[in-house]
């Protein structure tokens, strides 16, 4: 029996300037999963996240947290926001304090925790995001990536049971982006449900357990990454592309260079492993990747083939 | 202004308890303002200069340039005080007469001006001492301890943070305008500047809205509570501050009793 931690049921929402952001969006997030929400700009990802945190109230429809309908009185909202943390995309709109420590301690202090506990959580969050050395640095002297990690630490320090991140890797260099994803895996293993909005199909495909695709205010598709990313029509109508792993796997299988019936590779290591195994002894496999009849004298594989 | 902020974070006195620095600056400034002779204000100016240059390791050149800033206002204000204009010739006025009006200075006037000059300079140096050694965040935390209303404290903090956000936004807008020849002629410059300012306003509104949302998401309920790292108070520093300010105070009292 599946246990859903967050649910949006047929939510409609119109912003005060008349923009229709959600037109009957339904999304059920299973507890303990790693969920990616994909969709082009303006698909409604951020709006649905703001509903999960109780910032926005649905015009029509219902939001449920841990099976109970969300209520909008003070103590219910505090309970919800304690459990559902959002890291926003632009760190400069989130950072309000000039001090890194004060910024991170803001959330825990709002929860009314004792001082010792606040100190412990702040330290843990700084350690997890590897910003302990920035402790006394003013926020305006931080780089974009550092600001982003401070924002993440500020939400982690509240120890939410669901962590929602809007474009967590946008604007980060590859090394720091990979670090953030590792951090998500780590806190997910500790039991936190992690939800991430992204445009990056490759990242979503490799990382997520479950994928939602949004388009024009509704959820148009959902499922395991392997299912969703093979649905070419769904991807196309949502302005998304197929992950390169899926594409290459398909090409290789179609040409008979990989045996049929292999499951889709989730990581590039897995794909390399397929290629290596498909070539039997392992060495000359790559010779098949080059057009027939053409030999490359500098290429080790071609030379092996020739001998 | 940004340079001051930078020095506040890098000065050698950065890790001295902010309360100590605040107390020193405020006490010394009050004593300086209460003085009735030039001796104490001059001492204060020298003392804070030494503390800033030798203690906090702020480059002397930079500090003297900072001192030149208020000098312009001071000189303009002092001219108005020193110059005496009278219709009848006055033996106490040293000056010259044109069209029956005597323009000049008097000895008490000069003394008064000198006193005012040194007092202002002394007070300004005390404030410089505080702002060059103590980051804004810590000054705010001292004010919070002193029970300044939360509204003012929060506003100070947000204004301080947003100075940098807005400056950065304005900076990148300016660059993007310049790269499209926005400031090529006087006419386009005026137009670009107008657009920059109005855009900045709109963006600031958007920013404040987004910030409010982000604060709400982290359980904001109308009050920003602040975490304070515990900082040990140094008895040695307190004793030093007490000693210096006591000597200055005695000097002031003496000058009240026996004016120079």
UniProtKB/TrEMBL annotation, chain A:
This is ABC transporter ATP-binding protein. GO terms for molecular function: ATP binding; ATP hydrolysis activity; ATPase-coupled transmembrane transporter activity. One of its GO terms (cellular component) is ATP-binding cassette (ABC) transporter complex. Its main location: membrane. The lineage of its organism: Bacteria, Bacillati, Bacillota, Clostridia, Eubacteriales. Probably part of an ABC transporter complex. Responsible for energy coupling to the transport system. Part of an ABC transporter complex. Responsible for energy coupling to the transport system. One of its GO terms (biological process) is cobalt ion transport. Gene3D superfamilies: P-loop containing nucleotide triphosphate hydrolases. It is a peripheral membrane protein. It comes from Desulfofundulus thermosubterraneus DSM 16057. Residues 6-241 form the ABC transporter domain. Belongs to the ABC transporter superfamily. It is found in: Cell membrane. Keywords: ATP-binding, Cell membrane, Membrane, Nucleotide-binding, Translocase, Transport. PROSITE patterns: ABC_TRANSPORTER_1, ABC_TRANSPORTER_2. InterPro entries: AAA+_ATPase (IPR003593), ABC_transporter-like_ATP-bd (IPR003439), ABC_transporter-like_CS (IPR017871), ABC_transpr_CbiO/EcfA_su (IPR015856), Co_trans_ATP-bd (IPR005876), ECF_ABC_transporter_ATP-bd (IPR050095), P-loop_NTPase (IPR027417).
UniProtKB/TrEMBL annotation, chain B:
It holds the Pfam family CbiQ. One of its GO terms (biological process) is cobalt ion transport. It is found in: Cell membrane. The chain crosses the membrane at residues 23-56, 62-85, 92-114, 120-143, 238-258. Keywords: Cell membrane, Membrane, Transmembrane, Transmembrane helix. The keyword Acetylation does not apply. The keyword Transmembrane applies. GO terms for cellular component: ATP-binding cassette (ABC) transporter complex. CDD domains: EcfT (cd16914). It is a multi-pass membrane protein. PANTHER family: COBALT TRANSPORT PROTEIN CBIQ. This is Cobalt/nickel transport system permease protein. It comes from Desulfofundulus thermosubterraneus DSM 16057.
């Amino acid at each position: 029996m599946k246990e859903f931690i967050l649910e949006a049921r047929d939510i409609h929402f119109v912003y005060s300037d008349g923009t229709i952001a959600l037109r009957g969006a339904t999304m059920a997030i299973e507890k303990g999963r790693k969920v990616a929400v994909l969709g082009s700009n303006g698909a409604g990802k951020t709006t649905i996240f703001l509903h999960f945190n109780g910032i926005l109230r649905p015009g029509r429809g219902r939001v449920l947290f841990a099976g109970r309908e969300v209520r909008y009185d003070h103590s219910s909202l505090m309970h919800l926001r304690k459990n559902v943390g959002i890291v926003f995309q632009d760190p400069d709109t989130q950072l309000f304090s000039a001090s890194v420590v004060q910024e991170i301690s803001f959330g825990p202090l709002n929860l009314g925790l004792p001082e010792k506990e606040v100190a412990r959580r702040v330290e843990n969050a700084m350690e997890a995001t590897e910003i302990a050395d920035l402790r006394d640095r003013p926020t305006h002297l931080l780089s974009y990536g550092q600001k982003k990690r401070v924002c993440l630490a500020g939400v982690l320090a509240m120890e939410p049971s669901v962590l929602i991140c809007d474009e967590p890797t946008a604007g980060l260099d590859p090394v720091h982006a990979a670090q953030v994803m590792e951090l998500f895996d780590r806190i997910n293993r500790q039991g936190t449900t992690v939800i991430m909005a992204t445009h990056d199909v490759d990242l979503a495909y490799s990382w997520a357990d479950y994928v939602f695709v949004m388009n024009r205010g509704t959820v148009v598709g959902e499922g395991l990454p392997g299912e969703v990313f093979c649905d070419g029509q769904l991807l196309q109508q949502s302005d998304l592309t197929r992950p390169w792993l899926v594409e290459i796997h398909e090409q290789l299988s179609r040409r008979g260079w990989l045996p049929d019936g292999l499951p889709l590779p989730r990581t590039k290591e897995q794909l390399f492993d397929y290629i290596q195994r498909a070539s039997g002894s392992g060495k000359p496999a790559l010779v098949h990747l080059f057009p027939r009849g053409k030999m490359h004298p500098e290429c080790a594989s071609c030379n092996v083939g020739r001998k | 202004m940004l340079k001051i902020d930078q020095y506040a974070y890098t000065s050698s006195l950065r890790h001295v308890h902010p309360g100590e620095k605040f107390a020193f600056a405020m006490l010394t400034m009050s004593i300086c303002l209460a003085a009735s002779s030039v001796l104490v204000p001059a001492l204060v100016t020298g003392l804070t200069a030494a503390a800033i240059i030798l203690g906090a390791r702020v480059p002397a050149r930079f500090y003297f340039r900072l001192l030149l800033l208020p000098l312009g206002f001071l000189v303009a204000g002092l001219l108005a005080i020193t110059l005496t204009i009278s219709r009848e010739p006055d033996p106490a006025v040293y000056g010259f007469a044109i069209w029956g009006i005597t323009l000049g200075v008097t000895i008490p006037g000069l003394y008064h001006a000198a006193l005012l000059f040194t007092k202002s300079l002394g007070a300004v140096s005390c404030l410089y001492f505080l702002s060059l050694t103590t980051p804004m965040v810590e000054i705010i935390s001292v004010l919070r301890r002193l029970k300044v209303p939360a509204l003012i404290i929060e506003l100070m903090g947000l204004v301080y943070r947003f100075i940098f956000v807005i400056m950065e936004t304005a900076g990148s807008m300016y660059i993007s305008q310049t790269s499209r020849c926005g400031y090529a002629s006087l006419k386009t410059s005026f137009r670009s500047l107008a657009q920059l300012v109005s855009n900045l306003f709109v963006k600031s509104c958007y920013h404040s809205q987004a910030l409010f949302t982000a604060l709400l998401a982290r359980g904001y309920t109308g009050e920003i509570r602040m975490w304070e790292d515990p900082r040990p108070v140094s008895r040695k520093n307190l004793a030093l501050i007490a000693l210096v300010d006591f000597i200055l105070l005695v000097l002031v009292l003496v000058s009240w009793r026996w004016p120079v």
